[in-house]
Amino acid sequence: MLQQAVNFFKGHVTVRVEGGFPERVLNLCAARQIHFWDLNWETPISFTFTMTRRSFRELKKHQGKLGAELQVVGREGLPYFARRFRHRYVLVAGLGLCMLLLLVGSFFIWDIQIEGNVRVSQEEIRRALDKYGVGMGTYSFSIQSEELRNQILLEIPELSYIAVNVSGSRAYVQVRERTPKPELVDKRQPGNTVAVRDGLVTAVQPYDGEKLVLPGTMVQEGQLLISGVTDDEQAGTRFLRGMGKVYARTWYKMQCQVPGTIREKVYTGEEHTRYAICWGTRRINFYNSSGIPWGDCDKIVTRTKLTLPGGIALPITIVKETYRCYEERTVERSQEEAEQLAYAVLEAVLTSGMEEGQVERETLTSVPWGDDILVELSAECREQIGRFVEIPKE
């Protein structure tokens, strides 16, 4: 790879040799240490090979002794490429200006990549960076990493670490989010564990206090399961935390009414495309009206950020907006579609209402209900039904 780069900058030619004794050329190159490569025999009396411009000039000096004809069939490399522009002064000046602009532009930030965020959105981090002087077009050498980190951490307390590393015209922002502080439990505050719903108890795990139910017992919502008030002959009445977990089998019946008809999109096949260019923070539209004159359409936006070879970011983003036209029509919803839609909703409500548990069995039924479809979900679950309730202090 390195040798190919050297040959490109030096320039090289592909030479065709033809004569009665073409091997004399190879013997001469070996004797005079004239380097060549890519030897390819075309016929018994002719072949081609590649050599640098300097080696070819050396070979031409001995052409009279070779008894063969030398013909250049290809020229490649930077010198030959640059020679094309020796009389095109405006083009050369334009290329020089572009190179100068690229060199100057590499000192500014044109792309920001954020990594490591989960709960904190990228938009929030970008707003904080822009507030404290790191945005599109910021002079990269003006960034004070230490001061910026302190300001961002005060601005976004959910972050515990942030680092901004600049490479060329791209800023890499690495963040680490703060681990949420666990909720402290005041063990001096007495309380009880009560049932949040009806169920058949399968297991009781008291952490503190006295359990009042056993496995196999049916309990009702609000019933006391683990008591934080104990009474014995030696210590008398004691007030404890009364915490624990109580697992039980529970049963649910949930209903959802689904409309029998839906509005459906039917694409007409008509599509329209508009383009725009974002230069830094400025946008240039290649269309007149900013509205959508084609009626009901789906808008699909594709953004392509231009980069140079080597990953050098440019302050140019091509925005492509595609509009797919459609018409709406009313269609009947099938019973299977209604059941699938209702099941997804009811299942989400069911699982979100359980603190800790799982669905063991479930049955789904549906019946017409006027113009709608009534879907009912019957489920049997095993879940933790205990909830801690503090005992009010006097």
In words, what does this structure look like?
The protein is 24% helix and 47% strand. The protein has 394 residues and is of the alpha+beta class. The strands form six sheets. Strands 11-9-15-21-20 form a five-stranded antiparallel sheet, with helices on one face. A four-stranded antiparallel sheet has the order 2-3-1-4. Strand 18 and strand 19 (312-332) form a beta hairpin.
Summarize the structure.
The chain has 394 residues and is of the alpha+beta class. It contains nine helices and 22 strands. It is elongated and about 125 Å long.
| Helix vs. strand class | alpha+beta
Q: Tell me, rounded to a whole number, the average pLDDT.
A: 85
Low-confidence stretches: none
General form:
elongated
- The percentage helix is 10-25%
Instruction: Determine the number of helices (DSSP H or I, runs of at least 4 residues).
Output: 9
What amount of the residues lies in strands?
Answer: over 45%
Distance between the termini: 84 Å
Radius of gyration: 39 Å
Major sheet details: 5 strands, antiparallel
Can you list the strand order of the major beta sheet?
11-9-15-21-20
In total, the number of strands is 22
